Amino acid sequence: MAKNKSAMIVVAVLLVVVVVGAGFFIFRGPKETEEILTSAGLKVAMVTDVGGLGDKSFNDAAYDGLKMVEAEIGAEIKVVESSKMEDYVPNLKSLADQKYDMIWAIGFLMTDALAEVAEMYPEQKFGIIDAVVEQDNVHSVVFKEEEGSFLVGVVAGIDSKSQKVGFVGGMEFPLIQKFEAGYLAGVKAANPNAKIYTAYAGAFDDPAKGKELAASQFNIGADIVYHAAGATGLGVIGAAKEKGAGYWAIGVDKCQHAEGQVGEENYVLACMMKRVDVGVHKATIEALNGDFTGGVTELGLAEDGVGVCEAAEETASAEALAKVEEFKTKIVAGEFVVPTNPKDVN
Amino acid sequence: MELAFAINIIAFVIASTFRAATPLIFASLGGVFSERSGVVNIGLEGIMLFGAFFGMLGSYFTHNPWFGVFLGVLVGGLIALIHAFLSVDLKANQVVSGVAINLLATSATAFLLQKVFHTTGQSSSVPKVKDWQIPFLKEIPFLGEAIGKLNPLVYLAVGLVFLSSYFLFKTTYGLRLRAVGENPEAAETVGISVRKIRYGSVVVSGFLGGLGGVYLSLGQMDLFREYMSAGKGFIALAATIAGKWNPKGAFLACILFGFAEAMEGQFQLLGMNIPKHFLHMLPYVLTILLILGLVGRSVAPAASGIPYEGRK
User: CA–CA separation, B26 vs B211, rounded Å?
Assistant: First the structure.
C-alpha cells in the first residue's frame, strides 16, 4: 500500500506540473491587462478563435489591423487568445465587463458566442470578422473572397502548362465554398479547356492531409493547386516544394511566399490576399471617432479588401498579371459578377 | 491512356497508404512491445507528440534532420521511462499514468513552442528527412512509383515490423518478454527479472512512439504543429489490439487504416458522389469495425495492465 500511495503522489505531482504548464501557456502576460486598466484613453480588444496568434492567417491579420490603430491614434490594444471553443463567451464577457471601446470577435466560429454576449451588453460596441451578427451594437465585416479567388483562378488558368489545376479546401461549408466558386470561375474564364480537381480535407489544422490531397492532384497531372485551408494548406505548399520545378501552390489570406521559399526557388505562384487588417482598422477608427454603425460592411476588390499579393510579380507570368488587371477592372465596374456557390459555375 | 491512368492512380494509392500508415506502424509496434510485457501504454499519443516536437527542435538547431530523428527517439524513450517508473516501480494505475503523459505532452509542447519560436500554432519550417529514390527500383514503371520513392522512415517502419516479429517470437529475449506479460510470477520463478524486462519494453515502446512522432514532423512535414499527433497514438493502440498484439497483425491493421485515408482523397479526386463528411469518417469507422471483432476474438496478454506485486 505504501508503494501505491507514493505512486499517487508522483501522479499528483505530474498533474500539477501539467496544470501549471498549461496555466503558463494560457494566462501568460497578465501584466498587459493591468497596464491597460490603469491608463486612460481609448481601449480596443480582440478575441481570437482557436487558431490563435501565429496562425499566419486571419488572427494575425486582425492583430496587424489593431497595431495600425495603436500606431495611428495611440489607442491601447489587447489580444485575448481562446484555447478552446468554450472560451469564446467568457473571453468576450470579461472584456465587455472591462468596458473596452470596441471589442472584436475574430472568425465565423465565434458567431453564436458574439450573438449571445452582444445581447447581454447592449451598450457595448462589438465587431466580428467573416460572419454577420444582426444586432445594432455589432459591426459585421465580411469579405468577397470569391472575387480575390477569381483573380488567382485567372493566374492558375493561364500559367498552368498541363491545363490541369487543383483546389484544396479546409471544410466544406459556404464560406470556403466562396473561395472554391470564385477560383473555378476564374480558371474557366481564363482557360475554358482547363480541368479542375477539387478536394476537401475536413480540417483546418492537418497539414499532412493537405499535403496528401495536393500530391494526389499533382499525381494526375495538375501543376497548380490553390488552397483555402488554413494550416492544412501549409501541406499543400509543402507538396509543391517537394514535387519541385514546374509545380506551384497558391496561397491564401496573407502573402505566403515566405512559406514557399526553398533556397533560390519559390513554389508559391500567387496569393489571394484577404485584408482582414484593413477591415479591422477601418471599422475600429470609425467606432473610436464616434461613427460606429451596426450592420454589415462587405469588402471586395473595389474596397481593396481582397486581391492578389504583389509578390506574384516575381512568380506569375506577365500575361497572367495583365489578365488579372483586366478582370479586376471589369469586376470593380460591376460588369462581371463572380458566383459564390460552386454549383453556379458552369 | 485509360489503363495508364488507372495504373498511375493505383501506384499513388499504394505509396499514399504507406505514408499514412507509417506513424501508426511505429506507434503500434510500441504498443505491442509494451503490452506484451504486461504494461498498458496509453501514453503513446503523448510520446509521439514529444517525439514530433523534439525531432523538429533537433533539426532546427543542428540543420541535420537525422540528429532530429535521434533526439526525438531519445526523448520518446525518456518520457516512456517516466511511465515505466510509475507503472513498474510504483505500481501506479497504468491508464492514469498514460493519460497524465498525454496531458503533459499537449501543454508542454505548446508551451515550449511558444518559448522557442515565440509563436503559437506551428513552428517555422526546418530541414526534413528527404525522400529516397531507390536506384533501379525507381526506374521500374509501376513499382517505382508505388514503393521506390518513399521516405527512409517508411522503409524503416516496414523493416522494424519484421525485426520485432523475429525478436518476439524467435529469440530467447522475446520469449522472456512474452512470459512476463502472460504470467510474471512463473517467469520470476525461473529467474527472469520482471522489473528489467518491463522497464526495457516500455522504453523500447517509447523509442518507437518517438519515431512515429518524428515521422510526422520531419518525414511527412517539415514543421511541428500543436497537437499534430491528432489521435494517431490511440489509433495505433487500436491497431495493436486488432492485430492481436502481433507485429505483423498490427502492421496489417495500420495498412488498412492508411488505405482508408488514401482512398478518402482518391474518391474526392475521381469525382465520386459520396458525401465528403462520410469520407472523412471512413478511417475511423474502419477502426471501430476492426476492434469490434471483424478480425475475430483477440485475447490480451494475461498480465497486461496489472502491476506485478512480487511473489506472494
Answer: 6
